[in-house]
Fold this protein.
Amino acid sequence: MRQIHVDTITKTVRDLCIDACIDIGSDVECLLNKARDTEVSPFGQNILDQLIENIDIARREQIPICQDTGMAVIFLEIGQDVHIIGGSLTEAINEGVRQGYRDGYLRKSVLDPLTRINTQDNTPAIIHTEIVPGNKLKITIAPKGFGSENMSALKMLKPSDGIEGIKHFIIETVKNAGANPCPPIVLGVGIGGTMEKAALLAKKSLIREVGTPNSDPEIAKLEEELLTLVNETGVGPQGLGGIVTALAVHVDTYPTHIAGLPVAVNVQCHAARHKEAVL
Amino acid sequence: MSKVIIHTPIVQEEIDSLKAGDVVYLTGTIITGRDAAHKRFVDLLDEGKELPVEIENQAIFYVGPTPPPPGKVIGASGPTTSGRMDAYAPRLLDLGLKAMIGKGQRSKEVVDAIVRNKAIYFAATGGAGALLSQCIKSAKVMAFDDLGAEAVRVLEVENMPLIVAIDTKGNDLYKLGREKYSKL
């Protein structure tokens, strides 16, 4: 059984937190450049120019692209032949978040939901764990800002609502979100499963390289159709009107119950941050 | 899109001539405040106490910056969603606050208070925190230090790029812009 020490995990999480918040992936950068070529609204073009320049400034000055450095959402794929040694896995991850948000001068935005007292170190992280075959540990960090998280929605549709009902719900969510989630957005859509499964599918679809279609051609077609519809809302960059409201729509599905049709829409701002490492 | 330079404290005549959709560069000192600071402002007012900063003819920027790395005055400093301040904004506007800087649409109550007070709402680009930080020349915490990122600061800004989102007459670029491009 392969052993991985918790100190390695802490160090990896620390570095990923900083990297994710400062250096946006080339997937988003390419799509913003493409959006700049597509957008016809003068406000939209002006905003996209700023967002592209913002990416360069963040890299050059080594500061985060956005002040909302989010809650640290972490996906773990733990190989079943891995033995984690030296302490608690959860604590190792939270220590990595603590160090990353401190050493990277990232904002500490996490607090008790009722007392509103800040934990001061951006912990705890939101950790999703999956056991997979093999002897590797894959860690993906996707810091999630709440301008966009707040505009997300979940609905338990009726089976009779069908695909049209799904499309309607997604478009209404985008219209209702308007400018708040910092468009151009990325939409993560989870269809099926149970309530929490749909939400998790939506969230997890956002760590896909942005703009990569679902491997199922039928779902990829739906993603394309949804992207066209979302861009027809006219919301545009920053909600000031335009033809680029979203950079991509990602859809993932899972079997559900005969009585149900859960749909979750996780709204992601243009700062679609995600970085990964394999140990 | 005409481009105008605006200074603080806000001069009424200067903002009266601005229209929703004008591009503005703001230079001067502005105050910051977001959710927790706004709640404290209103609590202080309810208790009949004075606010810790002067708001009359001032501009408030809804921001919670990242901490300054060594050698810098501030970290990333983009706007947060203004709608969460809607519950508090009319009260501050009625006390003389002239300009708000944030992102996203505002409630009818806020638009009414903007018109009533001939105030203005500017949109800064959400998610352009690194770019906007370059316009900030100094930052000083003025109140509620315990709130960390949410503390009230006074910022000295130079040529901060903004768009007039809601002008003094209540014209709303969020509505006008969307209507122009909507196909649904």
About this structure: Residues 35-46 of chain B form the longest helix (12 residues). Helices of chain B lie at 12-16, 35-46, 89-94, 108-117, 129-133, 173-181. The first strand of chain B starts at residue 3 and ends at 7. The radius of gyration of chain B is 16 Å.
